[in-house]
Design brief:
The chain has six helices and three strands. It is mainly alpha-helical and 199 residues long.
């Protein structure tokens, strides 16, 4: 019985020693393979909206749309008041119909302005997405996150995106021409920012 106990103890101790010897100094088998950390870029969207002409033009467009809607609303309400004053006492029942028609005109104008703004904003965001994808590919980032809140690590790529977007869509020869003092051939997004009120 004592011989069996000593044999079992020796075999157990030998197996444990063999397991620890195969694992080595790392403590686990998995620790031998080194996992590379992802390369992350950070983008400050707030800074981008302050500097990039496309976003500045969008902000100016939004202000112009609000002004156009306020003026249109004032005009439609003035017309509505004239229509109400022109009603005879027998026609006061029509005042509700006139109010509904007036409100629908204002809502339709608001919807038109919002739709045109949404299309412009969508085009700018699509271009931003293409520029960010280009920067991510060029700098070999695994992903680019929006800056904000608490971050540990990551490289700020806001300036790189702004510089890349500034040259976005230009051919090599157009860049050479601009470099030697020529005018940018693309339409200036801020030139149309003093939007007319024809809408």
């Amino acid at each position: 019985m004592a011989k069996r106990l000593i044999l079992a103890f020796t075999l157990t101790f030998g197996l444990l020693l063999l397991v620890f010897a195969s694992v080595g100094p790392y403590g686990t088998v998995e620790a031998k393979t080194k996992i590379s950390e992802p390369k992350i870029g950070l983008l400050d969207l707030t800074e981008l909206k302050k500097v990039v002409p496309h976003f500045i033009a969008l902000e100016q467009r939004a202000k112009a749309n609000r002004r156009v809607l306020e003026e249109f609303t004032a005009q439609v309400l003035a017309e509505h008041q004239q229509q109400i004053r022109a009603l005879s006492p027998e026609e006061y029942g029509r005042s509700r119909e006139l109010a509904i028609a007036t409100q629908s005109r204002i809502d339709q104008k608001r919807q038109e302005l919002e739709e045109s703004f949404r299309r412009e904003e969508e085009a700018v965001l699509k271009e931003l997405e293409a520029v960010v994808a280009h920067v991510a590919k060029k700098k070999k980032f695994d992903c680019i996150l929006l800056k904000g809140g608490l971050q540990v690590g990551g490289e700020d790529v806001t300036e790189k995106v702004i510089k890349t977007w500034d040259k976005w869509g230009l051919t090599f020869w157009q860049r050479v021409k601009i470099f030697f003092g020529g005018k940018d051939p693309r339409p200036d997004p801020l030139a149309g920012a003093s939007f007319s009120q024809e809408q």
